[in-house]
């Protein structure tokens, strides 16, 4: 389950931020999860629950912000909504869509003390 290593990466990032920005506790975490990031939200929530235990963010509320997948269709020269990396363009049906958004997994915001 690669969500476990993602969760561990997030905790590591929080610890680095705590060091440079001098906070001791994380109370809430907002994570931006792109639709095309290849992350299963339920699995990520489960893994974070495990990994945050005993960390500076133990008991923190985790909010997942889903970011929709977007792409640029080269055939019809417009931005289209896609739900998987190799989706066809919803307007022309061709597979000439370059992903332009929704690939990220990142920490969007933190509430700390
Ligand atoms: Zn198209």
UniProtKB/TrEMBL annotation:
Family: Belongs to the HypA/HybF family.
UniProt name for this protein: Hydrogenase maturation factor HypA
PROSITE patterns: HYPA
Keywords on record: Metal-binding, Nickel, Zinc
Function: Involved in the maturation of [NiFe] hydrogenases. Required for nickel insertion into the metal center of the hydrogenase.
Record: residues binding Ni(2+): 2
Protein origin, superkingdom: Bacteria
């Amino acid at each position: 389950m690669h969500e476990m290593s993602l969760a561990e990466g997030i905790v590591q990032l929080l610890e680095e931020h705590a060091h440079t920005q001098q906070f001791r506790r994380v109370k809430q975490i907002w994570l931006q999860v792109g639709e095309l990031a290849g992350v299963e939200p339920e699995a990520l929530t489960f893994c974070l629950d495990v990994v945050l235990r005993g960390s500076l963010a133990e008991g923190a509320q985790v909010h997942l912000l889903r970011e929709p997948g977007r792409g640029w269709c080269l055939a019809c020269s417009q931005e289209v909504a896609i739900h998987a990396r190799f989706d066809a363009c919803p307007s022309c049906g061709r597979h000439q869509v370059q992903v332009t958004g929704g690939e990220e997994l990142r920490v969007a915001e933190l509430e700390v003390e």
